[in-house]
Amino acid sequence: MEHHHPTGEVRRGMSEKLRILIVDDDTTFLEDISFMLRDRYELGFAKSGAEALAAFRSVSWDAVLLDIDLGRGIDGFGVLDAMHAEEPDLPVFMVTRDTSSASAATAFKKGAVDYIDKRPDLADLERKITRALRERILERIARELSAGAGRAQGGMIGKSGPMVALRRAIVAAARSKGPVFVTGETGTGKELVAREFHRLAAPGKPFVAVNCAAFTKELIGSELFGHEKGAFTGAAERHVGKFELVADGVLFLDEITEIDSGSQAKLLRAVDQMEFERIGGGRSIRFRGRLIASSNRSVPEALKKGVLREDLYYRLNAFPVAVPPLRDRMEDIPLLARYFARRTARDLGMPTPELSAEMLRTLCGHDWPGNVRELERVVERLVGQGELIMPDELSAERPDASSTQDLLRLPYLEARETVMREFKQRYVRPVLASCGGNVAEAAARMGLSEWGLRKILLEIENSKQRQLRPSDTPGDAKDRLS
Question: 133 in a domain, yes or no?
Fold first, then answer.
């Protein structure tokens, strides 16, 4: 039996996993539960109430398994009260040998989402954790709606690995001091990233966004740095630019590659020296804010074409943040779709429609070249038309699907890998995503065992790795076939 980790230590894998804190003074139980969950989750451990609260405050946890009887000191219910005082929607499962109705009633009254015994069924525990996390996210969305959250907030919704990594990157960027450079395709939510960065890095201070593509090269300098009266024809009075207006807040320069090279040179000086001058003025003004820039272009291509100065890029790229496209976080599509459906129904004064499993699978099977913004428009249209009928462009056969004739032109291994990629894209991946990434639920929906689906996923991943390898020589391919 494996020994448990020191108190508060987190098991970290190569991929992003949900984090679970396990609190129990029973070493045998800690070892048993570690053996059961270590491949699925990042685990942290505590053996007393004091250790549990210290671990809780040091790391962000997705769920807690908490023993009621912790021996001396604060008991499990006391720990639960303290945790929920600081994080009210944290899912906490009470662990106990006493499954009496009295213990259950106390646990639920104090806000526990459920309770489990000392020998939990793994599949049942995983279902409970998944359900609790899903409900937590939906409750948070509902609070945002009732509080009048902005229409674009849906872009930051998600519990997938790429979104967890994105949130951590934003937190790290907010703690840094240098500029931040955000890249991502159109519709992924780069301004939402900038606003979240502002919330963390400069709360209560100004946030100023500039759409650089909206200004000509004659006007962008004045927009950014301002101008003095009489600086040029039509400058009838002094104009304060965004660098000055933002004060000690956050300045967001969206689509910075749309600025001409000459203006980029002036911007480089402002970023490098943290000071600027109004056009027509001779006095240097200190820039006291934080700068975050973005682009939807490929950075190497932009540098090659000269639409982004290399010196400016390296100065802005002190802390890079990449926003994932929606096709790389498909398990977030059901959450986003439900959010947009609920928000649209609220705006139209109608009941929130129920999105069927078939509809979610269809949504998860689309590539979404327009990303979250495209999904938002599709769901708004679905809800607004009063009946949930999928648009033709989503229910139609994928235009890039390989025909039989296409496959017959390929060698066996390449044809097999092509079919596996399309199988993943058209069936396995959408079903898994529509289940929020829950393998057990997806396997049940497919009519497979959980082990069988995991084997298929492993085969698909191996096929992907073979695709990434350098091309085989004909002899190598022949050897592997024999």
Answer: yes
pTM: 0.57
Cα separation, 109 vs 80, in Å, equals 11
Q: What is the pLDDT of residue 442?
A: 82
For residue 195, the model assigns a pLDDT of 93
- Write the pLDDT tens digit of every residue in 289-346: 999 999 999 999 999 999 999 999 999 999 999 999 998 888 889 889 988 988 888 8
Q: Outline where 287-403 has alpha helix (H).
A: 299-305, 310-316, 333-348, 357-365, 371-384, 392-395
User: Any bridge partners for residue 181, and if so which?
Assistant: 293, 320
Residue-number span of the structural domain to which 408 is assigned:
404-481
d(CA 224, CA 213): 13
Residue 147 CB coordination number (10 Å): 7
170 and 279 share one domain: yes
Q: How many residues does the chain have?
A: 482
* Strands 63-67 and 114-116, bridge-based pairing: unpaired
Strands 114-116 and 92-95: parallel
Res. 242: pLDDT tops 90: yes
Q: Which of 293, 269, 265, 272 is nearest to 181 (CA)?
A: 293
Q: Do 135 and 92 fall within a single domain?
A: yes
Q: What is the C-alpha to C-alpha distance for residues 83 and 65, in angstroms, rounded to an integer?
A: 12
Do 86 and 77 form a contact (C-beta atoms < 8 A)?
A: no
Contact assessment for residue 329 and residue 289, using Cβ atoms and an 8 Å cutoff? no
Q: What distance in Å separates the CA atoms of residue 188 and residue 190, rounded to the nearest whole number?
A: 6
Identify the CA nearest to 368 among candidates 189, 217, 135. 189
Q: Which of 280, 298, 324 is the last residue of a domain?
A: 324
Convert the pLDDT of each residue in 118-135 to its tens digit: 776 777 777 777 777 766
Backbone angles phi, psi at 276, to 5 degrees: -155, 170
The token pair at 277 is 């001058």
DSSP 185-206: -TTS-HHHHHHHHHHHHSTTS-
Q: How confident is the model at residue 461 (pLDDT cuts 50, 70, 90)?
A: low
Quick check: 390 pLDDT over 80?
no
Domain tally, the chain = 4
Planar angle of CA 368, 369, 373, nearest 5 degrees: 70
- In whole angstroms, what is the distance from residue 338 CA to residue 341 CA? 5
Task: Quote the CA–CA distance of 39 and 473 in Å, as a whole number.
Answer: 36
